[in-house]
Design goal:
Elements lengths: L1 E5 L8 H14 L5 E6 L4 H5 L10 H6 L5 H4 L1 E2 L5 E4 L4 H11 L8 H7 L7 E6 L5 H9 L2 E7 L8 H14 L5 E8 L6 H12 L16 H6 L4 H4 L4 H15 L1
Helix pairs in contact: 1-12, 6-7
This protein binds adenosine-5'-diphosphate and magnesium ion.
Length: 254
């Protein structure tokens, strides 16, 4: 099982949209077995896949339960090959509880839980909160790869240096495998000169690898979330559906 964290310290850059759609494409187009972990208390990935609830265990229990049973935590989605670990506001309290618990190691809880199901899935995609907290650190410790969605605006690069430092520290201290696969531009508007220049500038920076593929902005994206549908099903012909398929291919190639 390969584990990929989608992360950025900013909100609204399409972390959730990218996680859900990449996970769905890996399952639906490529036939892989995929586990999506919603690692944001807002639970947006859980909502898009119609699984948000307070009655079933989810990512909070992975953080707090010593003998968590992944078979009880993982739920099926409506899509063949795609399962989910959900999140809700209980993750807030769970993270605090972990920080107060000096008995057990705090940073390897995802990693240990995922070991239970490593043989069952080809990929695990983790949709992270726009934050460095104990569950996002757990995600980085459990991941092989990291991808950073970036939206071109005046503040596009805010927090990137801090995030890269966190990734480098995690690699050094706890997870020598961790690879920053790269940034990718989301919500790209090709008719906008600022978007074209911003992307070019990002590519010119040596610090961050950048994927060739960018994801075009489409008016279909928001309604696809209201419809609770991945974009390739909601609007197979829109730019973003094509682009997410291309991005997954590019990810699989390197
Ligand atoms: N390619 C796109 N085209 C248009 N809107 C998009 C696109 N990608 C994401 N969005 C919209 O941007 C907003 C933020 O996306 P989201 O994935 O929730 O970001 P994050 O998880 O980083 O906070 C949502 O309203 C979503 O519908
Ligand atoms: Mg999100």
């Amino acid at each position: 099982m390969k584990t990929l964290s989608i992360i950025n310290l900013k909100g609204g850059v399409a972390k959730t949209i990218s996680s859900v759609n990449m996970a769905h494409i890996l399952a639906a187009v490529h036939g892989y077995k995929v586990l999506l972990i919603d690692n944001d208390k807002q639970g947006n990935a859980s909502k898009i896949l119609n699984r948000h609830n307070y009655s079933r265990p989810g990512v909070a229990e992975i953080m707090t339960d010593r003998k968590v049973d992944m078979n009880k935590v993982i739920q099926k989605t409506d899509y063949e090959g795609l399962d989910i670990v959900t999140a809700n506001m209980t993750l807030l309290k769970a993270n605090l509880e972990v920080l107060l618990d000096q008995q057990r190691p705090q940073q390897i809880r995802f990693k240990k839980a995922l070991e239970q199901v490593a043989g069952k899935y080809d990929f695990c995609i983790i949709d992270n909160a726009p934050d460095i907290n104990i569950s996002t650190i757990n995600a980085l410790v459990a991941s092989d790869d990291v991808m950073i969605p970036v939206t071109i605006d005046d503040f596009a690069l805010d927090g990137l240096a801090e995030l890269k430092e966190q990734i480098d520290n995690t690699r050094e201290d706890l997870n020598p495998n961790l690879t920053l696969k790269g940034c990718f531009v989301t919500q790209f508007d090709s008719s906008n000169e600022a978007d074209r220049q911003g992307e070019e500038y990002l590519r010119s920076m040596a610090e961050y690898p950048v994927f060739e593929t960018h994801i075009r902005r489409t008016p279909k994206m928001k309604p696809s979330t209201f419809a609770r549908e991945p974009i390739i099903l909601y609007s197979s012909r829109c730019g973003a559906a094509q682009d997410y398929k291309k991005l997954v291919e590019e990810y699989l190639k390197n």
